[in-house]
Design goal:
Layout (H helix, E strand, L loop, with lengths): L3 E4 L9 H10 L5 E6 L11 H10 L4 E6 L7 H6 L2 E7 L6 H10 L3 E6 L17 E5 L14 H15 L4 E5 L7 H7 L3 E4 L1 H4 L4 H9 L2
Parallel strand pairs: 1-8, 2-3, 3-4, 4-5, 5-6, 6-7, 7-8
Enzyme class: isomerase
EC number: 5.1.3.1
Family: Belongs to the ribulose-phosphate 3-epimerase family.
Length: 216
């Protein structure tokens, strides 16, 4: 299966968000990645529920919503109602991760878990069969345009091994610093989905850039 691409609207032109979403609709992107930041879990604030709903109004691709927030359980239903088809919570923000995953699934969404660069994939062993998607942060969360962390390749291989050993169907998503140089190696390591923000939206021809990433 070819790699799936989830452009992150965090890097888009917020003043022309409808136009940016329509561009993604016309592209070969598989998902629209929506980064939610609260200024507490990460040192930045992006946007929340109303903007997610506005994006969904124009989107023809599934919304992949990444909650970089504390107390995500309080907002699961609101983001699902705003159009999220995948909801990813951070391992580091959940005291009762299994319960949170079940709550996401009960809402009819796919359940994702994001892990920060310092968090070991081994910590997911007991819940991997309940996770639809693991989002490995390949930069420190909070800001777009950061430098890719090289240790990510080993982390992806380790996670792929865990998924295979447990007989899970979990997809591996990479978020941060993804470009045409590291995409082939990420795919070889076992990645299924690449989140690309600045690399797509700062390109002269974003549609062509997405197509090129898809064809790797």
């Amino acid at each position: 299966m070819s790699i799936q691409i989830a452009p992150s609207v965090l890097a888009s032109d917020f003043a022309n968000i409808q136009k940016e979403v329509e561009m993604l609709n016309a592209s070969e992107a598989d998902f629209i990645h929506v980064d939610i930041m609260d200024g507490v879990f990460v040192p930045n604030i992006s946007f929340g529920i109303p903007v997610t709903a506005a994006i969904n109004k124009h989107a023809k691709k599934p919304l992949d919503v990444h909650l970089m927030i504390v107390n995500p359980d309080n907002y699961l239903e609101a983001f699902r109602n705003a159009g999220a088809e995948i909801i990813s919570v951070h391992y580091e923000a959940c005291n009762h991760l299994h319960r949170t995953l079940q709550a996401i699934k009960q809402l009819g969404a796919k359940a994702g878990v994001a892990i920060n660069p310092h968090t070991s994939v081994d910590l997911l062993e007991d819940v991997i069969q309940d996770i639809d998607l693991v989002c490995i942060m390949s930069v420190n969360p909070g800001f777009g345009g950061q430098k890719f962390i090289e240790n990510t390749y080993d982390k992806v291989k380790k996670l792929k091994s865990l998924i295979n050993r447990k007989g899970a169907n979990t997809l591996i998503e990479i978020d941060g610093g993804v470009n045409q140089q590291n995409a082939p190696k990420l795919m070889e390591s076992g990645a299924d989905i690449l989140v690309a923000g600045s690399f797509v939206f700062s390109a002269k021809d974003p549609i062509k850039t997405i197509k090129e990433l898809k064809s790797i």
